Amino acid sequence: MPGLLFIVAAPSGAGKTTLVRRLLAEQPEIHLSISFTTRAPRPGDREGYDYHFIDTDTFKARIAAGDFLEWAEVHGNFYGTSRRWIENERAAGHDVLLEIDWQGAAQVRSLWPDAIGIFILPPSLETLAERLVGRSVDSAEVIARRLAAAREEIRHAGEFDYAIINHHLETAQADLSAIVRASRLTLAAQREQNAALFARFA
Ligand code: 5GP
User: What's the CATH code of the domain at 21?
Assistant: First the structure.
């Protein structure tokens, strides 16, 4: 019995990573997929925790070997999700969360239409720009590229099932928890979790 598959996407600067980390602290039974990337680690990034950092040749070899469930080029770097990791987790019945971009989300949705897509929006483009500039580790050129990419990402919000507007962190966190809870309460999910009970009422 496969677990639930959550996909969380957002333009960078919307607060996605913070919200996801808070959700996972609250609900450690949801397992986070650690992506592979060719992006250089930022200060504070930890190998195997934030990402698996690999070089472009290794990434391309993994594409050729069919190792990725989905992969995409984002902001000039490659990112991909391990197929084997997801398949093992789902086979074990675990709930899984992917923090990926809209291109990856589309690929996963075509494979697993029951994936639950959650899109996180900033309260305004101005707020997003302020948050991106606030991340002083990135250069002005990188920030400009990220703003353009953010607009592109937001254009795809309509492909997701749920939207969270991250105005206040606490409210957005409660919204994310509510989506997870509601997803576990659909009739299909309840039937799977409580097969014996439903069988008695049949
Ligand atoms: P960052 O480099 O800022 O951590 O992430 C940049 C973008 O890449 C984010 O939108 C993030 O969701 C996306 N991303 C991270 N991992 C993956 C992945 O495995 N696949 C895809 N398609 N996108 C990813």
Answer: 3.40.50.300
Q: Is the pLDDT of residue 49 over 90?
A: yes
pLDDT at 42 over 70: yes
User: Which residue range(s) make up the domain with 181?
Assistant: 5-201
Average pLDDT over residues 113-125: 95
Q: How many CA within 13 A on the CB side of residue 158?
A: 2
Q: Hey, which of 79, 85, 118, 147 would you mutate to test ligand 1's pocket, going by the most ligand atoms within 8 Å of its Cβ?
A: 79
**DSSP H or E run through 180:** helix 169-184
**Is the full-model pTM beyond 0.85?**
yes
Three-class DSSP category at 29: coil
The total domain count for the chain is: 1
With the most atoms of ligand 1 within 8 angstroms of its CB, the residue from 74, 84, 96, 142 to mutate is 74
